[in-house]
Amino acid sequence: MKISVIKSDITTIKVDAIVNAANTSLLGGSGVDGAIHKKGGVEILNACKEIRNKQGSCKVGEAVITTAGKLDAKYVIHTVGPVWNKGGFEKEALLRNCYQNSVILANQNDVKSIAFPNISTGIYKFPKKIAAQIAIGTIKRYKNNNTIEEVIFVCFDEENFSIYEKILKNDTTI
Ligand code: ADP
User: What sequence ranges are listed for the domain Macro (predicted)?
Assistant: First the structure.
């Protein structure tokens, strides 16, 4: 499995699946969620509504998969990151679950290439360094245990990009 980092807008990436940092409502929001729904179109929202009708909201740490609508990707995997200032120790485990459950869904849907945003590091205020170590560490743990060939971490801001570059270069995952 190839792991890389780029600085870009995730809605422009051509991979089998892009991951969305959604919220529990699955009905769209701001940040990367808003960008994905805006560019991907109403098909994504309709698919999310269907999922809501079946299972209700999406819990923190869990993930669901939909069409990617008008985007270049085939699928959007929506996962709900934890809010940093809510709850105790479980925040880190919940962020780990986001990456883990996204990988599981990707495998179930024969996804060979997947792009992740920096989940929870925007409005949800997770410290960027800790979030990056969790993201990379969780993906590395799956390295030999799935059918995904390529994982791209898509950073929107320079700070996240340089944190990811450093961790990937020096392998300082936790
Ligand atoms: P959360 O609520 O999980 O914190 P946000 O969307 O606020 O979600 O932020 C998550 C990360 O996504 C942040 O690092 C933010 O800079 C980044 N982001 C925002 N828009 C995009 C985009 N179009 N492509 C990739 N990353 C984005």
Answer: 1-172
The answer, yes or no, to whether any atom of ligand 1 lies below 6 A from the CB of 124, is yes
Q: Which atom of ligand 1 is nearest to the CA of 21?
A: 3
Distances (CA, A) of 112 to 22, 136, 147, 152: 22, 18, 7, 11
Residue 68: helix, strand or coil by DSSP? Answer: coil
pTM: 0.96
Is the beta carbon of 32 within 6 A of some atom in ligand 1? yes
Domains of the chain are 2-170 (3.40.220.10)
Classify the phi-psi angles of 14: left when phi > 0, otherwise alpha if psi is within -120 to 50, otherwise beta.
beta
Q: Give me the interface pTM, i.e. the ipTM.
A: 0.98
118-145 tens-digit pLDDT: 999 999 999 999 999 999 999 999 887 7
Tokens coding 74: 């085939």
